[in-house]
Write a structure and sequence with these properties.
The protein is mainly α. The chain is built from 14 helices and no strands. It has helices at residues 12-15, 57-80, 93-99, 104-125, 131-134, 138-157, 159-207, 209-214, 235-252, 257-274, 284-288, 293-300, 316-321, 327-339. α2 (57-80) runs antiparallel to α4 (104-125).
């Protein structure tokens, strides 16, 4: 197969015609910082038009999050049926039957409806052709990036030190920023976009009485959440909150289809975990995130309806806007309501 990444470096004007966000404006390229061919590729780079021979990248992007949802949900459901793990449950099994206002069949049906809309959105909005993403002129894009790297180095290190660092390690730095730094930044920026979209729309669904009564109250029929009820929503809410939010994160972060597939699957795993209704000690999500099943469970209780809106990754919007409720505060609130005889679902 032809090594598209090792194509001859384009001239200065052509080097700025790529698809990356940093192309077309900013500092002039510094070609001495551009690695010579042949390029070394990171482990994740697969120079084929599709990762799998029997399915396009677009198909994987659409199908994998759905499969991930049901596989992860079934895994948590299996854990739910291990008696020795009951001590890690946030609620007792009888509470699921007595407090939830919807049957499992209704939950599964609603989730499937949402996933149908999710699939249709992907079919109509994602590009079918991924060859342009895979076979990009990487050296030309590194040339466009090199000016930004040099400018950043001078800003952080000063002119003299930056010159020495770039002279010795400039090409390696440009390679690392191109193959790892930018994709990592895109991923976390996409998480921020998804969080921002979901926080404000989720809060609107609570503040606006019409939207809560006719749309968002559907999700809150699950007072005791479980994993495969994570996407149990009114179809309108599911489309606007989850599907459109993911699409916006993909678009605004300038992700490739392969990058967004990782994002969508990770967000799906995180959402299922957040609705699992359990705090398992070896759950890696509890080690790296404050926004966990315990955090979101508070929101599903009547005393926490107007708190902990953040989903699915971080809690910064709750922190910044005063809508965060800790478990200690939730316990105090619950005891206060119980003492007044008002601890009942609406």
């Amino acid at each position: 197969m032809e090594d598209f990444g090792a194509a001859p470096l384009l001239n200065a004007s052509a080097a700025l015609q790529g698809s990356s966000w940093y192309n077309g404006f900013g500092p002039a390229p510094m070609y001495e910082l551009v690695p010579e061919p042949p390029l070394s590729y990171p482990i994740y780079h697969v120079p084929r038009t599709s990762l799998l021979s029997f399915a396009s990248d677009k198909t994987l992007n659409i199908v994998l999050p759905v499969l991930t949802y049901w596989l992860v949900s079934l895994f948590f459901h299996w854990l739910d049926n291990i008696p020795s793990l009951d001590r890690y449950r946030l609620h007792t099994p009888p509470e699921i039957a007595s407090r939830n206002k919807v049957t499992i069949v209704e939950v599964v049906r609603a989730v499937i409806i949402q996933q149908v809309f999710q699939i249709l959105l992907g079919c109509f909005t994602l590009p079918s052709e991924t060859a342009a993403e895979v076979f990009r002129d990487h050296r030309a894009e590194m040339a466009a990036l090199s000016g930004w790297v040099a400018a950043g180095a001078r800003l952080l290190l000063g002119g003299e030190l930056a010159g020495k660092v770039l002279a010795g390690q400039g090409q390696r730095i440009v390679e690392w920023v191109y193959w790892w730094g930018i994709p990592i930044a895109q991923f976390w920026f996409a998480c921020f976009i998804m969080d921002t979209h979901q926080y404000f729309l989720h809060r609107l669904f609570h503040v606006n009485k019409f939207l809560y009564r006719h749309v968002h109250s559907v999700h809150h029929r699950l007072y005791v959440p479980y994993a495969f009820g994570a996407l149990y929503n009114h179809p309108l809410e599911g489309f606007l909150l989850d599907s459109v939010g993911a699409w916006l994160a993909h678009q605004l972060s300038f992700m490739t289809i392969r990058q967004s597939t990782i994002l969508f699957c990770f967000a799906t795993i995180k959402t299922c975990s957040d609705h699992s209704g359990a705090a398992y000690p070896l759950d890696p999500i509890r080690l790296f995130f404050t926004n966990t099943a315990d955090y979101h469970d508070i929101h599903h209780q009547q005393y926490g309806f107007k708190y902990n809106y953040s989903q699915p990754f971080f809690v910064h919007w709750d922190e910044w806007l005063g809508t965060r409720m800790t478990r200690a505060q939730a316990s105090e609130k619950r005891h206060s309501r119980t003492g007044k005889g008002v601890e009942k679902e609406e």
